[in-house]
Amino acid sequence: MAETTPASNGTVNVIKGDSAVAHAKGSPGTYSAPSRVTLHLEHLPSKNIKAPWPRTPSRVDPNNPPWPAYRGYHEYSFAHATMGVRLPTILGKAIDDTSRTLNEQSNEDKIVDLVQCLERMDLLMADLSGNAKLRPIIDDGEGDVALWNKEIAKYFQGKDFMNAPWLFAEAYKYRRLHECFSVSRYWKDYDVFYRQKCDTFARSADAVFELSMRFAEPFKQSENISEKEKAETERLMFLELTQVCLWGNSTDLSLLINMTEDQIKSLQSTGGEHLAATEKNILGNHMNQLWETVKVLPEKTGGRIDFVLDNAGFELYCDFVYADFLIQSGLAKQIRFHGKRYPWFVSDVTRNDWSWLLNTMVYGHLFPKASEAERESLRRLGARWKQYENDGRWTYEQHPFWCTGYTFWDLHSEAPDLFLHLSHSDLVFFKGDLNHRKLTYDCAAPASIPFDVAIGPMASAAGAPKVCSLRTIKSDVVVGLGDDGDAIAEKLDQEEPGWKISGKYAVVLLSEGRPGEKVRFA
Ligand code: F6P
Ligand code: MG
């Protein structure tokens, strides 16, 4: 797994591996320790970008975002490091995982079928390492094939992994990885990242129990306090749990798989003091506006809140803690969670990850060192959350659009059914870095650009719901930092190179939505 580590000289060290290429050439075995190269993050300055930027809306398309696109051929960029190093390394680990599964099989038909999956993965590795042109996706019956091939045919004919926009090329790699299995007979739903996802939750014991011991007992206001005090308690709890949900995003596997247990612990500290300190790292902070939006939901519409999920395991657990509070407090009546149909960007939530988390909390033996009280608190939480699912207060959904290369600027046009569905929501949270990249077209927009402008039709199209991005910053695009945003970004570029990929900083950004024009169905 590639790592990025801030260095002291204004650059960031990227760990670079060449064993992936060796595998593509047919060498078996696991992936060895990579060597270091130096990464400059300021390759595409987003300040002082003069006309023709931003492109006028009619000139914007997937190959031409409003501001300059990040592309893999920008040497020394995070896009380049990801396309050239991180993705082959992630694929190499996926091959190792599949080989491990192969070695555990006894049925010949299944073995032969899985060997063919491995051969397809080797071809993908050769394409990735050899910077092949992007070919259409094979029709494997998935609901997204037409969307993928339309986008490739319209915008990316003749493009390769390095000269297509980074966002599209990276998503395409995960779609091709899925195809290695989806065309098989027995392994259609195999998840090469499943072991890693489960393992990281198992290694998050401290933070898991810190939260379960505190929240197993349902949220209830004390009887003896005034209405004003009750409102204040609710507000403070909301703000605290918004941060728990936000920082749950900092431990994503595609970047942090080599972390020690202590490093995971420090990223996952959830205590009040810790959160007060981390609030200063929220560079664009609309938490107060968010509270103003949420607090009136009960009397307005009854409160439907949607979560476009990001990562499984600990992050999903934090999302659940937050969603539980929203239900317990009466701020929301219904929560809809949107996950992925198949393994995506390593750690993203699938239906399987969703069920695994709830069931392992109730029945699992994951934490042998925990006390009985701790285990009981986890069981209680898990049982309550399963009950929400059973009575329809929580639902899991997985629209095919979430696993395409389209950004959310195209959500209303390429997935109108989904857009309409979201337009019925009072508030849609988008979790994590990739969702933020997709909201903002993943381009070099100035940091001072308001969030409403950066997300285009997701804020301006008729019926657009209120959108809140809860994102720890783990890649180049940064918007919504206010009028001084460009200066703030410039200062950080100079003083803390690597600030855009470290996960130390975050944004909580809220759009206005177009509620006046919302189409509401009974
Ligand atoms: O490979 C880079 C990336 O796509 C970035 O968006 C981010 O660093 C990571 O992968 C995914 O992060 P998240 O799980 O928060 O979307
Ligand atoms: Mg993710």
Automatic annotation (TrEMBL):
Its EC number is 3.1.3.-. InterPro entries: ARMT-1-like_metal-bd_sf (IPR036075), ARMT1 (IPR039763), ARMT1-like_metal-bd (IPR002791). Signal peptide: none annotated. Keywords: Hydrolase, Manganese, Metal-binding. It catalyses: beta-D-fructose 6-phosphate = dihydroxyacetone + D-glyceraldehyde 3-phosphate; beta-D-fructose 1-phosphate + H2O = D-fructose + phosphate. Its cofactor is Mn(2+); Ni(2+). It comes from the Eukaryota. Belongs to the damage-control phosphatase family. Sugar phosphate phosphatase III subfamily. Metal-dependent phosphatase that shows phosphatase activity against several substrates, including fructose-1-phosphate and fructose-6-phosphate. Its preference for fructose-1-phosphate, a strong glycating agent that causes DNA damage rather than a canonical yeast metabolite, suggests a damage-control function in hexose phosphate metabolism. This is Sugar phosphate phosphatase. It comes from Rhizopogon vinicolor AM-OR11-026.
